[in-house]
């Protein structure tokens, strides 16, 4: 009798483990998540600025180039920030260098934005260009709120 109960208990435990193991979805890679996020962002922006279908290809080619340039600038700056934050013995010079890098990154970002604004204005109206800036900020705030809620 005890043997039957023991075998039954082991079978239930193993069976439950198999069911739970099948239930779990494999985690997406960071690259897959970034790709999905960008696709969602593109749909969001197209809707927010009322982008015509015939302009979408041209817009998103430029937008992707701009995003890539901006991302490279801030990646370098974030690396410096992380390095200083991890270094308990960081000097005043280290902090000054990071502060300068942040300011320079913001300046370069503004230059990139100006450059692409000129290119966007060849096929977007001034209103759409304005709406694009508002939509990017709206999207950024929504993502921030979602991350904040997820942490809680």
Specify Rg, calculated over alpha carbons. Answer: 24 Å
> What is the end-to-end distance?
49 Å
Assign a percent range to the helix content.
Answer: over 70%
- What best-fitting shape do the alpha-carbon axes yield? globular
Number of β-strand runs: 0
Residue share in β-strands: under 5%
Helix-strand topology string = HHHHH
Helix run count: 5
Low-confidence stretches: none
Class from secondary-structure proportions: mainly alpha
Output mean pLDDT. 85
Q: What is the makeup of the main sheet?
A: none
Structure, explained:
- Helices cover 86% and strands 0% of the residues.
- With 152 residues, it is mainly α.
- It starts with a helix and ends with a helix.
SSE layout:
Blueprint: H1 2-23, H2 30-48, H3 53-86, H4 92-120, H5 126-151
Relevant terms:
globular; mainly alpha; 5 helices; 152 residues; 0% strand
TL;DR of this structure?
This protein has helices spanning 2-23, 30-48, 53-86, 92-120, 126-151. The chain is mostly helical.
């Amino acid at each position: 009798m005890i043997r039957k109960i023991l075998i039954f208990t082991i079978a239930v435990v193993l069976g439950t483990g198999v069911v739970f193991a099948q239930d779990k979805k494999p985690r997406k890679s960071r690259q897959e998540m970034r790709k999905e996020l960008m696709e969602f962002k593109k749909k969001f922006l197209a809707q927010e600025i009322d982008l015509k279908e015939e302009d979408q290809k041209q817009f998103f080619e430029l937008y992707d180039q701009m995003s890539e340039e901006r991302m490279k600038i801030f990646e370098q700056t974030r690396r410096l920030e992380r390095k200083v934050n991890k270094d308990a013995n960081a000097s005043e010079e280290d902090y000054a260098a990071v502060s300068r890098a942040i300011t320079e990154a913001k300046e370069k970002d503004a230059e990139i934005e100006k450059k692409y604004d000129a290119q966007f204005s060849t096929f977007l109206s001034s209103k759409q260009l304005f709406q694009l800036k508002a939509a990017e900020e709206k999207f950024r705030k929504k993502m921030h709120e979602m991350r904040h809620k997820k942490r809680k």
